[in-house]
Design a protein that fits this description.
The protein is of the alpha+beta class. The chain has 9 helices and 19 strands.
Length: 432
């Protein structure tokens, strides 16, 4: 009995997906629920599991082809045994939706297979479960995935794992042609440029991933359709630091997660959003939509780009709930297992450029939202308090907002409220 492997039903907001890479080849055994292929959408990478155990009989859609919901990807033969060294003709040409160029590529790749059934045109990645970005880096640098330790879920190898492997390899394998430092010739008294020994100045052109293209589209859209303006303030985080230091151990012991800064910022923003509901609103044509709930997006950086999972009803979450949710989002986002539903919606966003060392920036609003808060690096600075110069851990915060519906007064007072809540956290308990 044979069964068809089809593209799963895509969400309403996603029209199609791009087939990134197959993890199996024709003739390979598969087990039920094993990931067969990765599909990249505008937001996430979807895994397509095997619907039953058997042998992958045919692959009908090749890498790089755009697919839609319900389209046939492959055929599995139930209960059949794997065929060692499956021959190239087992791979069929792409379906009618594939282009002639894709079919030609398939033909050339299958001809290049050796007698053992392995693809001679590119490295064998069957030994490791690679993310799409990691696979590209491994192939470009001729790295055997079996030699790279994966840090992701179920040993999944990420792009950073491959990059770290290459860096470590370079560190222990210096160029044998390089002369010892003691024998290095002295620099000439006068430098005279010599003709470049490079025979070609290489460039590499690669298409944007769907996520990167979507990010670019949304950023340009926000700049073109909203009247964006940014206001700044600074926050003394001494009180938050003292609370974290005092309660970090019992908090982690009781809740199983560390007490970070983000939960304080989420709570502070919720208090400010309650006072200034326009900052939590959005524009729809000539209408202003006021949201009576607080779905706060928290930007997470991944190898594929920046994504924004959403904390639903953040006002109802405890500090522990927020920290657990953010940790869970971050790990699954980097492993490529976060869902589209978790990235959809949101009424306000927080982004933290401070983790990368940013001292100040102007974040771009995540349309159709109307505002975004930017956190930055915590830096000890001399401050005058009660007539005395003292050293305090300070952070610049930035609010970029849509000036069409948010006035400067509201934006400034929003930031002042966030500042007051963080400098006196008891306000967030008393809601004052």
């Amino acid at each position: 009995m044979t069964i068809e492997v089809r593209v799963p039903q895509l969400p309403e907001s996603v029209a199609d997906a791009t087939l990134v890479s197959w993890h199996k080849k024709p003739g390979d055994s598969v087990v039920r629920d094993e990931n067969l292929v990765d599909l990249e959408t505008d937001k996430v990478v979807l895994e397509v599991p095997a619907p039953m155990a058997g042998v992958l009989k045919e692959i009908r859609i090749q890498d790089g082809i755009t697919v839609t919901s319900g389209q046939i990807l492959a055929i599995i033969e139930e209960g059949a045994a794997a065929v060692p060294g499956a021959s190239a003709p087992a791979i069929l040409a792409a379906s009618s939706g594939a282009t002639a160029a894709a079919q030609d590529t398939v033909a050339k790749e299958t001809v290049a297979k050796d007698a053992g059934g392995k693809d001679a045109a590119k490295p064998d990645t069957a030994g490791g479960k690679l993310s799409p970005a990691a696979k590209r880096v491994a192939e470009e640098n001729k790295v055997d995935p079996k030699t790279v330790a994966g840090s992701g879920k179920d040993g999944r190898v990420s792009k950073s794992d491959v990059v770290n492997y290459l860096s470590a390899k370079d560190a222990v394998s210096p160029d044998p042609a390089a002369p010892p430092s003691s024998a290095a010739p002295k620099a000439p008294a006068q430098f005279v440029p010599t003709p470049s020994a490079r025979t070609a100045r290489a460039e590499q052109r690669v298409p944007m991933t769907r996520l990167r293209a979507r990010i670019a589209e949304r950023m340009v859209q926000a700049q073109a359709t909203q009247a964006l303006l940014t206001s700044f303030n600074e926050v003394d985080l001494k009180s938050v630091n003292e609370l974290r230091a005092r309660y970090k151990d019992p908090f982690e012991k009781q809740h199983g997660v560390k007490l970070g800064f983000m939960s304080f910022f989420v709570k502070a923003c919720v208090e400010a959003l309650k006072k200034f509901p326009t900052v939590n609103a959005s524009v729809d044509g000539n209408d202003i939509v006021y949201h009576e709930y607080f779905d706060v997006g928290v930007a997470v950086s991944t190898d594929r780009g920046l994504i924004v999972p959403v904390l639903r009803d953040a006002d109802l979450l405890s500090y522990a709930d927020i920290e657990k949710s953010i940790a869970n989002f971050a790990s699954r986002a980097r492993a490529g297992s976060i869902t589209i539903e978790e990235l959809t919606g949101g009424t306000f966003t927080i982004t933290n450029g401070g983790v990368f060392g940013s001292l100040m920036s102007t974040p771009i609003v995540n349309s159709p939202q109307s505002a975004i808060l930017g956190m930055h690096k915590i830096q000890d600075r001399a401050m005058v308090i009660d007539g005395q110069v003292v050293v305090r851990p300070m952070m610049y915060v930035a609010l970029t907002y849509d000036h069409r519906i948010i006035d400067g007064r509201e934006a400034v007072q929003f930031l002042v409220t966030v500042k007051q809540c963080l400098e006196d956290p008891a306000r967030m308990v008393l809601h004052v």
